[in-house]
Amino acid sequence: MWSKMKEKYLEYSKEVNNAIENNLPLVALESTIISHGMPYPENVQTALNCQRIIREHGAVPATIAILNGKLKVGLSDEEIDFLGKAGVKIQKTSRRDIAYNVANKINGATTVSATMYIAALAGIQVFATGGIGGVHRGAENTMDISADLEELAMTDVAVISAGAKSILDLGLTLEYLETKGVPVIGFKTETLPAFYCDKSDFKVNFRIDSPLEIARLIKTKYDLGLKGGILIANPVPARNSMDKDLINKAIQEAIAEMNQLGIKGKETTPYLLSKIASLTKGKSLETNIALVYNNCRLGAEISVHLKKIR
Ligand code: PSU
Ligand code: MN
């Protein structure tokens, strides 16, 4: 019954369909990072390179979006180009928007939360992205907490990210994940990386140094019926890590300007990302691209191991 219903809404690319039929390792990718996370044409080049890197590491990429009322798992190069060119004109789609967009055939670029949900429907357990949403600074007044955290609480997908940006409150983000029972793994690190920087003052729950060991943890969690995601924090390579003071100054300036302009809700993250990129003269964009590639590599390695262990 459910599987028939599912077929009605999901649409796989040929490559993804072949991977599912042959039990090949898959890695999901989100599309808000394309439409809202980076400017054109870097967004399209990055998305295509992510797919290439995943293939080079023995897995199959599945970029996810909502197009023409379908939950698309695997996009063509033309579809990626369409999302990249349209940019913020495409609707940023999180969990709450999925049903409305599908019912009304509204195109949507999926955030981490929506991508996790659709990946899980398609049976994909590993998802690589840049940064996740979290508890925003000042959330004690605004209650701005990303739906990504609730999704990590309930959907069985391991998410590889470069930690969380310090536009967020990293300490409160970790507290939230702890309450929800989401394990936070540091890949070769003791501290939660802060996206643009490879380190922060906050500790991860467990440090693991090999992709095989991470795959074993994922398998064990789901064998035990422990619902919800796993957050794998993969620090940006040291050579691409930004100076802490420089980036924090840009973040503070961007937040102050955002508050002055009265920007709220789902516009917050895209606004801050582009403002920080211009304040750092493109350096933050360069770092962002490097860390996404790094996460795709690790995601592919974990997914390959996950298919082999039993
Ligand atoms: N962080 C980035 N780039 C991004 C995002 C976050 O560095 O593109 C996107 C992701 O799609 C994430 C979303 O799921 O922003 C979080 O938005 P919000 O804070 O509105 O939940
Ligand atoms: Mn928000």
Describe it for me?
By secondary structure, the chain is an alpha/beta fold. The protein has one domain (2-308): Indigoidine synthase fold (3-Layer(aba) Sandwich), CATH 3.40.1790.10. It has helices at 2-9, 14-21, 32-35, 42-56, 77-86, 98-103, 112-121, 139-142, 147-154, 170-179, 211-223, 244-261, 268-279, 283-308, and strands at residues 10-12, 26-29, 60-67, 70-73, 91-93, 108-110, 126-128, 158-161, 184-187, 206-208, 230-233. Strands 1, 2, 3, 4, 5, 6, 7, 8, 9, 10 and 11 form an eleven-stranded mixed β-sheet that branches. The model has no long low-confidence stretch (mean pLDDT 96). Manganese (II) ion binds next to loops.
